[in-house]
Amino acid sequence: MEDPVKFTYKLKAPGTAEGSLRVNGQTAAFTITNAGNPLSDLLRGMVSLIFEPSHIWEEENIQFIDWYGDETSYKWVFSTVDGETIRLKVTRYADLFESSDGAALLNETCSVFDFYSGVITGLDSFIKSTGLLNYEQQWQKDEFPLTYFLILKKYLVEKGLWNKQSGEAGNLNSEMDILFL
Predict the structure, then answer these.
(1) Which of 50, 112, 158, 180 is the most core-located residue (most Cβ within 10 A)?
(2) For residue 168, is pLDDT > 70?
(3) Which residues pair with 23 in a beta bridge?
(4) Residues of 161-176 as b/e, b for ≥16 C-beta within 10 angstroms?
């Protein structure tokens, strides 16, 4: 059976990346530049939902993230009211400075854990294939947001949700060893 959430990310020409987020069969594809720090913004927003759980006080816990392409921008909005399910919306804008022309690429609800697992699994594969040093050289701005990535990976390990690849041991130290090999 297909995973409910799949995230792909690949560096293309220097300073550009492309990828996609698929949730429940609906896909949002994107091409972005290093005008911002998209991975850091995404992972920081995900961490915020864990460490600033407004849903405990019956408030909506919501994050807004902007990604920029050459001539387009993408607004990610994700929110949870219960800490269990997450509403994900990705909208593409044809003009960087005009927000009235948006086209919704994705508008889905899924499990918070499926979303986190999908993104972290995709980025884990990305890091292992690209390398941290190559990331900085090819992205040409900012380092890979390793701290946020490891916080989220540790979160998945602690919840028993991390699907280890064959040959990996079961604790975070082993995961870090694999990451830095």
Answers:
(1) 112
(2) no
(3) 5, 26
(4) ebeeeeeeeeeeeebe
Read off the pLDDT of residues 27-65 as tens digits, 9 standing for 90 and up.
Answer: 999 999 999 999 999 999 999 988 887 767 777 889 999
Q: Tell me, yes or no, if the pTM score tops 0.85.
A: yes
Sign (positive/negative) of CA torsion 163, 91, 16, 66?
A: negative
φ and ψ at 145, to 5 degrees? -75, 70
Largest CA distance in the chain: 49
Please state the domain extents for the chain. 5-176
Q: Report the chain's C-alpha Rg in angstroms.
A: 16
Range 5-176: architecture per CATH: 2-Layer Sandwich (3.30)
**CA 168, CA 178: separation in Å to the nearest integer?**
8
